[in-house]
Model the fold of this input.
Amino acid sequence: MANSITSMMQTRDNLPAKNTPRANVVSAAAFLLPLALGALTTALTFSPAGVIVGLLLGLLLAQSPKVARQWERGVVLRLGKYVGLRGPGLFWVIPFVDTVSAWIDQRVITTSFAAEETLTSDTVPVNVDAVLFWMVYDPEKAALEVQNYAQAVSWAAQTALRDIIGRTSLTDLLRGRERIEDELQKLIDERSNPWGVTVQSVEMRDVIIPSALQDAMSREAQAAREKQARIILGQAEVEIAHSFEKAAQSYRDNPTALHLRAMNMLYEGLKEKGALMLVPSSAVESMGMGGLLGAAALRQQTLTGSDEVPE
Done:
């Protein structure tokens, strides 16, 4: 119920203003001129009839001039029959015979609409907010073919949005916004064209999904990234193993290169901390690092000033 009331309030706020009496300089002049002449006649003849006639004539003439703004068109009815559009600018009507039934705004109008708790094709409830940009291209149709064209466009947009959501999965709704906006624009345009209204664009502002589903999608994304990270790490291990295999083949046929590599490893280990730990293995014998380790230990003893002789 609250959602329906909110939607109705948004629709009401986006409707054009209702017809209200419009004061203009020409109407004021048409009213004051006969009144002034009547007052002058009364002053000359000492009869109140001049003022009364001037007042009535002024009130009658003040109903004739109308002014339409640059972006407006006035729909004129003569004794209830459509006679045409008037404006922009100053135009005249026959008092008590012609009436301006509506003022049609031909500027681009923005209307916000929403679809709340609407199920997608995979039965996921979503709330979607969107904005519609539209304008009246035929004021005659807008005045004669539909009772309230602004409200009709708003409801047509809302029902079209619900229709498209019901035919779209959640993944397509989140990833294919541009396609859905284009489809929504075409659907609303088809419904509103007979009313003299054209839709320029539709923009989806937000798509809200349940919090529990957001958590599930977040965990799914994390798991997918973890899987991809493990795959990349495994591929890196394979490439490293291939590199080690090629290096081993090079060292096997070139003992000098192997010893140089051993010296480089020893240098790298001693460069920062001045110490190196090796786990006993066949690597020490195969690379000839025993003598190198002894020399390194002797050099470290010399630097630290120790009297102990390494065994």
Q: What stands out?
A: Residues 216 and 222 are 10 Å apart (CA to CA).
